[in-house]
Q: What sequence folds into this?
């Protein structure tokens, strides 16, 4: 290890231990750097360990968590944590027996391909820590402590881990941990921890020896849906369920045609006059109102690309008025099953965004 890297690591260790950095500073560069303040360390040191060290005081009920979920989480993660078509499902795949045993049986069931978060995660602290530091996606760390407790309580309730009247707090979180479905499914027998105090004695498996037995057979396509039969029972995309990870496909046209059609429409979309400065102003508004968190200009993120929206409605005589109304009211179904919540932005900004979309959504 280089001396500079070693000094850096000792700086982090000493700062985390509240010892300051003076002992770790290099004498080769006098006057550079300063001791880390306790306030700075506290702001950085927000992780929560499986033994709940670092967990702040607070509480939140399941019912309070439902309100937080519907306002901040459901648009990306689904009404019931099924995650729609974007993110991996959070909820599902666990049973009451799993809660009793601490092992999720379906993780060993090859006929059940789904792998939800609560099937895999072993510690409730992992859920709390991640929600606290990274959610919501477009505004990380914007939830206060009690909101984090409440939304985690709601997730635990949807997974059948805690009852409807449960209040999650720094004093009751151990009760939830004792009922985590896969709490006994985690192992440290991997040798990836330094020293010989954990797992297999500090001997990681680096040989990568393939067993080459009991391998799954290569899958073979036994049938397919011919073009002439695609729409015999109606368009499956319009018959899809509002909840659940499985989605219907558009059977009203041959497979792949929607991609070609979207590309053709985008290429044919009219381009706005250059040099008017409108695009830069709109780009700032898209960032200000977090539109860019779910929509790219020329690529789909959670919602459709702005250019695809512009191409779809370019032939409407009232395109700007129509798009302004859709932004204001929100909706679901025209671009898939993920809902867009109503947007509350000033009318002047709304009309500017709608005008930009109507003109082709240029960068």
A:
């Amino acid at each position: 290890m280089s001396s500079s890297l070693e000094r850096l690591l000792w700086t982090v260790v000493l700062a985390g231990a509240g010892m300051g950095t003076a002992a770790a500073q290099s004498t080769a560069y006098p006057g550079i750097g300063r001791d880390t303040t306790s306030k700075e360390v506290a702001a950085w040191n927000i992780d929560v360990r499986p033994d709940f060290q670092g967990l702040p005081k607070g509480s939140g009920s399941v019912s309070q968590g439902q309100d937080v979920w519907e306002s901040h989480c459901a648009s990306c993660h689904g009404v019931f944590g099924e995650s729609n078509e974007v993110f991996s499902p959070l909820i599902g795949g666990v049973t009451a027996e799993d809660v009793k045993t601490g092992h999720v049986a379906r993780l060993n069931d090859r006929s059940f391909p789904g792998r939800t978060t609560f099937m895999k995660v072993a510690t409730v602290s992992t859920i709390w820590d991640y929600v606290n530091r990274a959610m919501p996606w477009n505004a990380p760390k914007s939830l206060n402590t009690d909101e984090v407790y409440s939304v985690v309580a709601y997730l635990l309730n949807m997974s059948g881990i805690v009852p409807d009247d449960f209040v999650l707090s720094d004093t009751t979180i151990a009760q939830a941990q004792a009922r985590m479905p896969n709490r006994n499914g985690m192992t440290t027998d991997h040798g990836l921890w330094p020293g010989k105090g954990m797992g297999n004695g500090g001997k990681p498996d680096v040989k990568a020896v393939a067993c080459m037995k009991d391998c799954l057979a290569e899958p073979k396509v036994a049938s397919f849906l011919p073009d002439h039969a695609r729409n015999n029972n109606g368009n499956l995309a319009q018959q899809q369920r509002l909840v659940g990870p499985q989605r219907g496909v558009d059977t009203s046209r041959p497979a792949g045609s929607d991609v070609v059609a979207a590309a053709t429409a985008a290429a044919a979309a009219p381009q706005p006059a250059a040099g008017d400065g409108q695009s830069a102003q709109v780009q700032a508004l898209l960032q200000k109102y977090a539109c860019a968190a779910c929509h790219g200009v020329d690529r789909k993120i959670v919602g459709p690309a702005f250019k695809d929206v512009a191409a779809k409605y370019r032939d409407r005589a009232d395109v700007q008025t129509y798009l302004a109304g859709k932004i204001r009211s929100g909706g679901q179904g025209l671009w898939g099953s993920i809902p867009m919540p109503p947007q509350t932005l000033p009318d002047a900004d709304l009309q500017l965004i709608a005008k930009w979309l109507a003109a082709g959504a240029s960068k």
About this structure: The longest strand covers residues 336-340. The chain has 13 helices and four strands. Residues 40 and 141 are 16 Å apart (CA to CA).
